[in-house]
Amino acid sequence: MASYSTSEFxxxxxxxxxxxxxxxxxxxxxxxxxxxAFNRIKVRNLKTGRTIDRTFKSGESVExxxxxxTGMEYLYNDGxxxxxxxxxxxxxxxxxxxxxGETYKWLKEQDKCEVTLWNGVPLTVTPPNxxxxxxxxxxxxxxxxxSGGGGKPATLETGAVxxxxxxxxxxxxxxxxxxxxxxxxxxxxx
Amino acid sequence: MPDGHKxxxxxAGQDILQQRAAMFAAIRYxxxxxxxxxxxxxxxxxxxxxxxxxxxxxxxxxxxxxVQQLYLQTSPEFAMKRLLASGSGPxxxxxxxxxxxxxxxxxxxxxxxxxxxxxxxxxxxxMDEITSLLRHLELLEExxxxxxxxxxxxxEHYAGINPFQASVDDLFSLVSAKGIHVHIASENRHKxxxxxxxxxxxxxxxxxxxxPHLANEGFVFVHSYPASQASLARINDQNPQIAERFELFxxxxxxxNGFNELTDNTExxxxxxxxxxxxxQKKLMExxxxxxxxxALAFGLEPCAGxxxxxxxxxxxxxxxRSIREVLAFPFERA
Lengths: 190, 335
What we know:
Chain A has one helix spanning 97-100; strands at residues 3-5, 14-17, 20-30, 38-45, 51-57, 61-63, 67-77, 82-85, 92-95, 112-118, 121-126, 130-138, 152-156, 161-164, 173-177, 182-186. Chain A has 190 residues and is mostly beta strands. Chain B is α+β, with helices and mostly antiparallel strands and 335 residues long.
């Protein structure tokens, strides 16, 4: 089984702790001049997203987590699972509600997502940073008011709700930043 | 221009380089006024430092026809003691030292050390001289003194535990009560000590619980370490549990480490052997120890105290820098 020594610790390294996969967020080394050194790490649980601190005696090893980020195309949702395909191998996998979480709001068929696999099973799904989605519902607003000052909520085809400028109408395509859930721009000639 | 093309530049600014030069000048002025002689000893040596918490950097050369392994000094301690035994009188040195340390805000594999020895001084007298140096460098007011605690007082005050009486269990309870989650290797889960020695747990408490408190203090001397952490210090005649070793902390950062020096050649040889044995067990690099030092001590070294002080860390204090990387012209990444 692959393992990492504390001297290999760095942000982004994926390790196993208490049978769960974690990613190292921060690695801090404390080293007395004449004594035992320690690696103090902040790690995020890749299943729950929870962050914890751990202290390792420097020189110890920890099991590597078989975690891989793979670019995959979103195919469809069958009511229970979200299906993705590896564009190179055409291999398909199904991600559960636990893995997809809130990301479902941004999943549009044929978009490229990043699927994190742990021992070959989807752990998390990260949508593209920007997605283009159709507005399916929003208050028509006052005609001629294009100031865009306050904005209004709009429901998108995937079910996501974002604030959009007042001039955005039903059936328009808009571009959204999925990291902040914010409107970016209109999409011309959709 | 990509960042890669800018890496030839010095990291430390001109003002910091000037402050480094002024610091060196002030230190040399301080010692010349006190009759302490500046010396130089080899950076590259045929033998190394077997200290189990320090890893040496090595080099190779074939000057005398055959390839030999050489060690870059981890401190000039052994050579300076050989000078003392040769009759040098009080001496100091400003030199580079090398250790296989990770690059952090406090560590660089190559760093600058000030080391000095005072024949006839004990470690408390040497601590007083360090205080005078700090005043001379204007890091202390003229009449300001430095807080001084024994290792026991330090642990009692900041961690509420007596380090000379606590058991492994007591120390583990304290660590978990303070919310520190220590990783226990799976092969050690069922051992009573979880694979930790008393000294390792004391180091854990020092670095995780006590040093954050010391970060709010200025200079603090800690003296009278457990005999198990003696390094090259004498063991106290009255109390065999105590080593006559001290450290100086500045804002929670270790700045200096000093000893009432071990001058007994038999005991020195025994400690080298214990270190080598530990290295073998832990599969650390084998280090050829310095027989010249043993021979010098056998010839005779008068009682003396010595200290090593990290000058890059001192410059961090002088300049108010957060990282050692800011005060080096070319830190390791750019060396």
